[in-house]
Amino acid sequence: MGLLQPAHLLLILLILVLVFGPGRLQGLGRALGQSWRALVAGFRDGTRETPPSAALPARACARCGVWSGDMASYCTRCGAPLR
Q1: Considering the entire predicted model, what is its pTM?
Q2: Domain that holds residue 44
Q3: Which of 9, 34, 57, 75 has the highest CB neighbour count under 10 A?
C-alpha cells in the first residue's frame, strides 16, 4: 500500500478544517493558487528575455529588467522611459 491512503487524506482534511475553519481554508487555497500562477508566469517571462549581444548595444529597463535596443526610448514591456 501507498504511504498516504484515502483514510489518511480525509483525516488530514478534517484536522485542517477544524484548525483553520472552512472560510479561512478556502482563502488559503485561493492565495496558494494565485501564488502558483504568479510563479509559473514569472518563469515563462524569464525564458523570453535574452541578454544583449555584442553586435547590438542595449540597455536594461530599471523597472522590469527587459533588455531594449540602444535606439529605444521606452521599455517594450512596461513602457517606462529608458535612461
Answers
A1: 0.39
A2: 1-48
A3: 75
Rg of the chain over all Cα atoms, to the nearest angstrom: 23
Structural domain total, the chain: 2
Q: Are residues 10 and 37 both part of a single domain? A: yes
Residues 8 and 43 in one domain: yes
Q: Measured between alpha carbons, how far is 50 from 53 in angstroms, rounded to an integer? A: 9
70-81 tens-digit pLDDT = 777 888 788 888
Which cell numbers hold the place of 5? 491512503
Asked whether 77 and 64 are in contact (CB, 8 A), the reply is yes
CB 38, CB 45: distance < 8 Å = no
